[in-house]
Amino acid sequence: MAALTEKQKLLREEEKLTRALQDLKFKLTALSVQEDGSRASPVKRSDSCLFLPPDMSIVLLGNDWRLKEAVGMILLGETKFSLDNLHKCEKLSGTFKDKPVTVIHTPDHLLTTTSEPEQMIQEIIDQSGSGPHVFLLLLESEDFSEEEKTRLESILESLSEEAFQQTLMLMFRSRKEEPEFREKYMTEPHVKDLIIRCRYRCMWMEHTSFDPSHPDVEFRRKELFSRISDMLKKSPADGLDPECSEGDTDVTEQKVSVNLVLFGSSALKTSAAEFIGRREDLCATISPEPCEKHQWVRVRGSGLSLLELPSLSGKPLETMMEQCLHCLSLCGPQGVHAFILVLPQGPLTDEDKEELRRLQDTLSPKVLPYTMVLFTGDSDLTAPEKVLFDQGDIPALTVDLKNQEQVSELLQSVDTLMKKNQPHGFTTETLVRGQSEIIRDQKGEREKRPETGEGECLRITLIGKTGTGKSSSGNTILGEDRFLTKPSPAAVTKVCQKEETTVDGRRVVVVDTPGLFDETLSHSEVDVERLRCVSLLAPGPHVFLLVLKLDRFTEEDIKTVELIKQEFGEGLVKFMIILFTHGDKLERSNTSIQDFLKETVEPFKQLLGQCGGRYHVFNNYKIKNRDQVKELLNTIDLMVKENNGECYTSDMLLQAEANTKRQMMREKEELREKMEREKDELREKFEREKEKMEKKEKMKELM
């Protein structure tokens, strides 16, 4: 089977996301937390007509009158649905649990005609009394077009500003549906966009489900009204005042000052919850779905609520989405004020990185401004992992879970995060907007790919030994002196520095680095600066310019290049271009760069081959010569196109670091085994020599 292309992977992810979002909100169980901090019990599911208005009107919209007729009969509990005129709005009445229900049947041509629908819209308003309260979109999947979707949106917007909040979609499967038809259909942008606008309220139905003779028809009727009631509970129509009996007081919404969600792959989440609220101050855990191990606790007297989210790593998208939506529902209309990734002391594992990526994939990138990282233990505050998060605009904090005095420091960080995101937390509405933007962006992305976005910002990192001319080359790219340069036997650049310019209307960002591999920095400084040279250009640099003097390629140069490849990973060469400085030497000697390369040593030729033969020459004495810069950018653009627009990311760097550590451990183990073998060999040799000496002594005694 052929490998999936990038576009196919993108489509598949979209399909999974859309399927996961369907019907999940209906499955969520509301919880309440008592004000006195005592144990609270799960909320009882409300009666299916609890949130129905006293005189409800339901508008049926769709592209097939037979579907509207069948659904109308189910809603009214009738076996016959008499329509006098299929070209006009028809109003029919019935009851559900002794409550009056009005169903308004609209003609098919309302979605297909090109004429203005004002008259029809006015008929709907006139016939719906105090409503309309609910809009049911009955759509035949194979026949629903983008033009009908546009028309439908226009009608709903004309009927009410809140129409989409009061809309439930019923998608009817094709009678000739083939395997995976639904998955294929859900990739249609106009369908996905409509589902998003309807807040993911969508049910897939069979045509037989609404046959009056079907044995489950009464179940289907109750299910429909239950879904309608659930929708109105979350987005009540104008004038709707649900009548709640005394037994329904559990649904009263609790006001919570701050909602925090602890997530991560480790078991430290519970310890972190006890640290934040102190074990004795935490209310009893509420777990309506024990298999999911949701933990919802309240810190007495603090106006603070904590939710422990199960690990997302290794779970299918549908499960992740359901857990996250359940989490959002528990936090109520205020939403989540901070998602806190709890990490243990030490290097990040693949599971740790996966947790953050999966939360972002599930809830959209809009979750990142609401995210912070909590390192547990007395870690070094300049540890590479913390620097990586800080540079990526995700605040990171290190605490000792045994030191209660640090709780205030954590809450201060949460408060800072909340002020940035005022006035709201992360809610289901934030999720809807985020996923809507993703789908719109991905639609445009598919149309552009595999274009590399040459008009976008170009991100460049300069690497190499001290004294090769990295800072001067950066200034040449920028067209002015921004990076400090001066003749010196020691390194001038001590830390990574970021500058940017515009070349022909295009943003170019350059990071200059200190000599990372020639003993000018300590090991810990190298770790920090290596991370910064990538994270300063988040999501990562498009190119690493390996800066070399136009001179003899020495043994030291070879070792430096091998160190760079080892520390950044073998995959670095995919993003690397060799930049020669001192191009004035070629001009003075009247030599071409091609002639110079022919005379170079074999290890350098191998390096050049690994870099795809990419190189460029700078004369940094001619800083105003923009032609040499434009030629370099053209070379970079060609490489970026070959890489399908990808960049070198922090994940790649951390993976390279993990590989290096594993290699060092293997080498250490091999060295230990070698020493053990040599020790055994010496012991055996000693024993043999000893045995020989003893034999000689015995021989002497016998003689």
Automatic annotation (TrEMBL):
All copies of domain AIG1-type G, residue ranges: 455-657
Xref: Pfam families: AIG1
Region (Disordered): 664-703
Keyword GTP-binding part of the UniProt annotation: yes
CDD domains given in the database record: AIG1
Keywords linked to the UniProt accession: GTP-binding, Nucleotide-binding
GO MF term set: GTP binding
Coiled-coil portions: none
Family assignment from sequence similarity: Belongs to the TRAFAC class TrmE-Era-EngA-EngB-Septin-like GTPase superfamily. AIG1/Toc34/Toc159-like paraseptin GTPase family. IAN subfamily.
Protein name from the UniProt record: AIG1-type G domain-containing protein
Species of the source: Knipowitschia caucasica (Caucasian dwarf goby)
